[in-house]
Specification:
36% helix, TIM Barrel, 13 strands, eight-stranded parallel barrel, three-stranded antiparallel beta sheet, alpha/beta
């Protein structure tokens, strides 16, 4: 059994071929797709966060709105770039959105990926400390965020406050109990997966990772998950961790699918460089008739290792079609693989 959700990158473009021609279109359709996914029985609605781009950038208004319109479905991110974040203000926003959603937020955070501008986090007022890299800064921000989510007081109260204070030091408010255990780290390497396990974060593994062994993507990703689980066990955490992987999976079940994706063809992993000296491996997508998908997906070792599967959706094709994409997987593919 697996939790199955969607992951939207939230693109918009003024092109007449796009169903999302503005930021307003993308935000409102993201809420509508979350509602539709809940009605279909999907388990999660996740959104990518990018800055300086025609994509979703500020996640918490969207998460709060989606939470207010739904009752059951998990609502999350994959991922928030911590290089851009004030961790204390983020804890306030996250706590408020989680309370509105009734404790359903699942927040994926990470060091981020290459962005649209050079060192975009500097425009947000952040810079690595002396001797730090931007990745170090992101992890430092993440550790502060995790610490304040525990709900412990740390700030000295004003002896003459405007309103009466509770006794002791003050914490970030609003505090949402349990949110600390629903933070995920998006790891691109085995080492960062191990680091996330030690800090008690769940693991998000995407459709790319650094190419550390030269093996097929799904094998490297499965190994990353096993390294993470071993580190989690060694750290002595009491709860069971969660692990998600994301995939592009499209079932060809009608003429619209054939028009968009053809009859399906054998896809392969791709190798590229997301940074100047960083070789990355990008996992293949899956497109085909349901019976073909079932056979191919059964061989994916990383999906087998994970408890949560996020299906990337082409959000510019609109809510109705993306709901159809989700329904086809939930109806024709997931049950045959034992995911439902």
């Amino acid at each position: 059994m697996k939790k199955i959700g969607f992951l939207s990158f939230g693109h918009w473009t003024p092109s007449p071929q796009s169903q999302t021609r503005s930021a307003s279109d993308t935000l409102l359709q993201s809420i509508d797709l979350t509602v539709a996914a809940e009605e279909l029985g999907a388990d999660g609605a996740y959104f990518r966060v990018h800055h300086f781009a025609r994509q979703l950038g500020s996640p918490f208004p969207l998460l709060a709105a989606a939470g207010a319109k739904t009752k059951r479905i998990e609502i999350g991110t994959a991922v928030i770039d911590m290089r851009y974040e004030n961790p204390l203000y983020m804890a306030e926003d996250a706590g408020a959105a989680d309370l509105i959603a009734g404790g359903r937020l699942q927040l994926g955070i990470s060091r981020g990926s290459p962005e649209q501008v050079i060192d975009g986090w500097r425009y947000f007022g952040y810079a690595p400390a002396e001797g730090e890299t931007d990745a170090d800064m992101a992890r430092r921000h993440a550790e502060v965020f995790l610490d304040v989510l525990r709900g412990q007081g740390f700030a000295e109260p004003n002896p003459r406050p405007m309103f009466p204070n509770p006794p002791g030091k003050l914490r970030i408010e609003p505090h949402s109990e349990g949110l600390r255990e629903r933070i995920w780290w998006g790891a691109a390497t085995n080492a960062t997966a191990e680091w996330a396990a030690k800090l008690g974060m769940n693991l998000q593994s995407s459709t790319l990772k650094f190419d550390e062994t030269g093996e097929p993507f799904h094998i490297q990703q499965a190994q990353q998950i096993r390294v993470y689980r071993e580190a989690w066990k060694a750290a002595g955490h009491e709860r069971e961790p969660r692990v998600s992987v994301s995939r592009s999976i499209f079932a060809i079940v009608d003429d619209r699918d054939r028009a968009y994706f053809g009859s399906g063809s054998r896809e392969q992993d791709q190798i590229g460089f997301i940074e100047e000296n960083t070789r990355a491996i990008f996992g293949r997508g899956y497109t085909g008739e349901p019976e073909t998908l079932i056979k191919e997906l059964a061989k994916d070792e990383a999906i087998a290792e994970a408890d949560t599967l996020l299906l990337t959706v082409p959000n510019q094709l609109g809510v109705e079609y993306n709901a159809h994409v989700l329904e086809a997987i939930l109806k024709y593919v997931a049950p045959e693989l034992g995911w439902r």
